[in-house]
């Protein structure tokens, strides 16, 4: 009887985990550049013995979560008119510098210039340029080109004096080599910075939205809730069967 209980228990546990993933995705439907999180599961047969006797066989199958991944499908691009907003078109990532000094990658291109003249993300992480954190002259008018080139025009200077100050480090590592951190940023699995890719292009004055489909996420939440309910009913049925068996043993 314990076989049914443990199988249903593992199924219920993974249904709850899947529900947490879907809820997080649903909460980020309006987050700029968000990539939907994926959670996959696999069946793990539990066998006892070495298979040399008829009693040595698979007795139950557990459900375990596999390595979670992400949906790298591009999200919708919307025009904002803000010259510091950039949206990566097609595959690719913006490079940022995390508080621990390592390099991470994001699709959230809602940038701004901080009080130190550095180009930073909405969460105040410095954007990486050709030689490190990207800085612009104070009070200058900044424009970003299709290839990530950052140009600046100092107030009072003629338009012809606009100068290129740096270039965004745009990368395109293989999706299989990326891992998502708890901060929502992506990093290479080996921890080494990815090389700049000249084929990555951006659209200035635009932002990429989340690639989460709210309708599909809501359907997944309902499905997970029903699966969890089914697993708990199986546990209740197993308990009732065991109680009935105990009563029969008492009468014998």
UniProtKB/TrEMBL annotation:
Source organism, top-level taxon: Bacteria
Chief location of this protein within or outside the cell: other
A GO CC term attached to the entry: bacterial-type flagellum basal body, rod
Alphabetical GO biological process terms: bacterial-type flagellum-dependent swarming motility
Domain (Flagellar basal body rod protein N-terminal): residue spans on this chain: 5-35
Domain spans labelled Flagellar hook protein FlgE/F/G-like D1: 87-152
Compartments where found: Bacterial flagellum basal body
Entry keywords, A to Z: Bacterial flagellum, Cell projection, Cilium, Flagellum
InterPro entries reported in the protein's UniProt record: Flag_bb_rod_N, Flagellar_basal_body_rod_CS, Flagellar_FlgE/F/G, Flg_bb/hook_C_dom, FlgE/F/G-like, FlgF, LlgE_F_G-like_D1
Domain Flagellar basal-body/hook protein C-terminal: 204-248
Signal peptide: none
Complexes and interactors: The basal body constitutes a major portion of the flagellar organelle and consists of five rings (E,L,P,S, and M) mounted on a central rod. The rod consists of about 26 subunits of FlgG in the distal portion, and FlgB, FlgC and FlgF are thought to build up the proximal portion of the rod with about 6 subunits each.
Family recorded in the similarity comment: Belongs to the flagella basal body rod proteins family.
PANTHER family for the chain: FLAGELLAR BASAL-BODY ROD PROTEIN FLGF (PTHR30435:SF18), FLAGELLAR PROTEIN (PTHR30435)
Protein name: Flagellar basal-body rod protein FlgF
Organism in which the protein naturally occurs: Paraburkholderia piptadeniae
Gene name as annotated: flgF
């Amino acid at each position: 009887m314990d076989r049914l209980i443990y199988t249903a228990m593992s199924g219920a546990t993974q249904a709850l985990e899947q529900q947490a993933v879907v809820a997080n995705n649903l909460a980020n439907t309006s987050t700029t550049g968000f990539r939907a999180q994926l959670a996959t599961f696999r069946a793990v047969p539990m066998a006892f013995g070495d298979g040399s006797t008829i009693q040595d066989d698979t007795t139950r199958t557990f459900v375990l979560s596999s390595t979670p991944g992400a949906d790298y499908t591009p999200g919708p691009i919307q025009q904002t008119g803000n010259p510091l907003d950039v949206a990566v078109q097609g595959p690719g990532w913006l490079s940022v510098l995390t508080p621990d000094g390592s390099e991470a990658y994001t699709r959230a291109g809602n940038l701004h210039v901080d009080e130190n003249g550095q180009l930073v993300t909405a969460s105040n992480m410095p954007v990486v340029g050709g030689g490190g954190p990207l800085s612009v002259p104070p009070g200058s008018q900044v424009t970003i080109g299709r290839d990530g080139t950052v140009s600046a025009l100092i107030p009072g200077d003629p338009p012809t004096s606009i100068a290129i100050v740096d270039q965004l480090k745009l990368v395109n590592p293989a999706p299989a080599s990326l891992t998502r951190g708890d901060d929502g940023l992506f990093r290479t699995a080996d921890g080494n910075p990815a090389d700049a890719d000249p084929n990555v292009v951006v659209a200035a004055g635009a932002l990429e939205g989340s690639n989460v489909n709210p309708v599909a996420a809501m359907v997944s939440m309902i499905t997970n809730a029903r699966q969890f309910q089914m697993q708990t009913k199986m546990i209740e049925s197993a308990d009732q069967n065991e109680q009935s068996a105990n009563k029969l043993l008492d009468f014998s």
